[in-house]
Structures are given as C-alpha cells and as structure tokens.
Amino acid sequence: QAKFLAEGIGSFVFVMTISLAETNCGNSAIDGVTRFRNLAPIAIGFMLTSLVFTFGYISGGHFNPAITLGVLLVKGIRVELASAYWIAQVAGGTIGAIMGLIINGTTSRLPAPHVYKNAAQYVIRGFIAEAIFTAALVTVVLHVACSSQKNNHYYGLAIGMCVMAAAYAVGGASGGSFNPAVATGLQLVKCMAGNCIPLMHLWLYWSAPAAGAVVASVLFKMTHQIPKEEEEAAAAEKPKQLY
Q1: Are 60 and 7 in contact (CB under 8 A)?
Q2: How many helices and strands, by DSSP H and E, does the chain display?
Q3: Mean pLDDT of 60-64
Q4: Are the C-beta atoms of 53 and 154 separated by less than 8 Å?
C-alpha cells in the first residue's frame, strides 16, 4: 500500500507541476502574449529530482510506466507490483492534470504533448524522439538505481537532469513526454476542455516509451556487471557436485 501511494502521490505532483510550469513559464504563457525563454523543463527536472529523493526509498520513485517496465524487464520488480504501479501512475497523473487545470483557472492554452502541428508526417519523427530519449532515461534509472552503484547519493539528480535535458532536446518535436502517465493525464484533461486532437496520438506516447524501455533493458543486461556478492550468492545456491 505504501508503494502504491508513493507512486500515486509522486505522479500527481509531477504532472501537476508540468501542467503549471508549461502554462506559466513555458511555451504556453497563460495570457497568450507573455513569453519567457522556456523555463518549464528546469522546474520539471528539479521537481522530479525532489520526488525521486523523497519517495525513492519507498517505491523506487518511478512515476513513469516506462521506467516500471524497464525495471520489470531486468527482474527488479514483480509483475503484480508493476501492474499496481501503472494504475497508480496513470490515476495520479490524471488527477494532477485536473488539479493543474483548476489552479490555472482557464482552459486556454492547456499543455499536452503532441507531435509537431499534429500532422501525420511528423508522427515518425515524434516516435523516434520519444523512444530514444525514453531509452536514455530508463538507462540512467537502471544504472544509477538498479546496479552495483545503487547505494549512491546522486541518483535523483541524475534522473531529474536527464528529463530536463531530454525536454529541451526534443520538446519541440514530440512534446517531450517520455512518460505515458504524463501524456495520458494531460491529453485527457485537454480533451475534457474541448480539444481532443492531441489524444489522437496517445498510442504514440505509450508505444514509443515502451519501445525505449525495452531497448534500455537489453542494453542494461549487456553492460551491467553483476556485483561480486550476487555472484557469490548465485554460486552458493548451485548444488554441489558429488564427484
């Protein structure tokens, strides 16, 4: 229950932060006129860093179905627990997007990840961007939180800064989601507000991160060095030969 709540609360705060940051200091200024250089990825990255450090010791601090899938594929979590995480992440993210709408007090210029100009010819470009940078994110998570260096004190910062850099890199091409729970929450709320066009590509924001997570898990298995204590434990479990 604690892990379920941690993932739900973390996803709620994370998606709410995305909604508010993108509206107030991102490319979607709330008055439609004021423009800053896009500062939203900075707020998003640091909030994720804070949440990972806050809830990491409870649930691992995933807040992202793609990360949970990557951890599942390297046998770092049970299937039933992963399923519970996915439910908590999507539910928390959707509630967070709704709360962002309430706080903003307007349905004008609500943020939601979408392919450039919502045009079909940009779908492949968006898919590639989401898949590659989700793979990068999941790779970072697996190596700093699921490897022999998992007891480090910088894992949250590495994860948050990866998301910030990825958002700046391809945010203009794909919306920079890298997280199906984020895309689902923001696109559903935008549809509730009367614009369902971004929801047409919801499949992309699930399939591309899933593909990235699969690639990251394969790369992790290829590069991850089994810690010595794990090797010794595995050797101890093998039956001794009688001759």
Answers
A1: no
A2: 9, 0
A3: 95
A4: no
**Kind and range of the H or E element at 142?**
helix 123-145
Q: Which two tokens stand for residue 65?
A: 């179905």
Measured at the CA of 64, the angle between CA 150 and CA 191, to 5 degrees, comes to 165
Gyration radius (Cα) of the chain, Å: 19
Amino acid at 16: M
Q: How far apart are CA 46 and CA 164, in angstroms?
A: 8
Q: Which tens digits make up the pLDDT trace of 157-183?
A: 999 999 999 999 998 889 899 999 999
What gap in Å lies between CA 171 and CA 3, rounded to an integer?
A: 30
Distance CA 212, CA 59 (A): 22
Half-sphere exposure of 130 (CA within 13 A, CB side): 31
pTM: predicted TM-score of the whole model, two decimal places? 0.87
Task: Judge whether 184 and 190 are in contact, CB under 8 Å.
Answer: no
* Residue 230: Cβ-neighbour burial (10 angstroms; 0-12, 13-18, 19+): exposed
Rounded CA separation 23/58 (Å) = 31
